[in-house]
Write a structure and sequence with these properties.
This protein is of the alpha+beta class and about 190 residues long. About 20% of the residues lie in helices and about 35% in strands. The strands form 2 sheets. A 5-stranded mixed β-sheet has the order 1-7-9-5-3. The protein has a 5-stranded mixed β-sheet with strand order 4-2-10-6-8, with no helix packed on it.
Length: about 190
Amino acid sequence: MKRAGTNARTGLQLLAVVLTMGALAWAAVPFYSWFCQVTGYGGTPNVAEAGADRVLDETVTVRFDANTAPDMPWEFRPVVREMTLRIGETGLAFFEAYNPTDHPVAGQASYNVSPDEAGYFFTKIECFCFTEQVLAPGERVKMPVSFYVDPDIVTDRDAKRIRHITLSYTFYQIELPEAQASVTPDASVPYN
């Protein structure tokens, strides 16, 4: 009898360990995303509702990079490959996406900034990456990103010498939202 109680207790402990590990694994992705957004770790930029409160005479060059995941059928590219701005000045860049298929395709962009130390100072105001995008067959769109480099970069011990930053996006195919999945869009969507 004592052995059955020990086995049951051991089984419950193992179950508790497995459930705890599962819960931690489930929470890891949102926690890591939150951590990166708060700290800029891993080149994750900040988000703001308005531009910087000051603009410096020093400049920074921002390069734009565009990629698609292997299963994403879109063509995706920056309209302009780089721009030079004064630190604190609000920049506006566009990326072009094209769906060459005969069916609607939904996508979501992930992004990062390099070098990683610049992530804490690179701030987005508006970005197509904040929401999912759906392109109809043959549709071509230009998608904006509005951003600035925080003037505090010039006084940061690790980032003060950074004057070239790369903003990189990768589009991944996602499930088509139900509203779009039930509608057959017109393939002759005009170029925006």
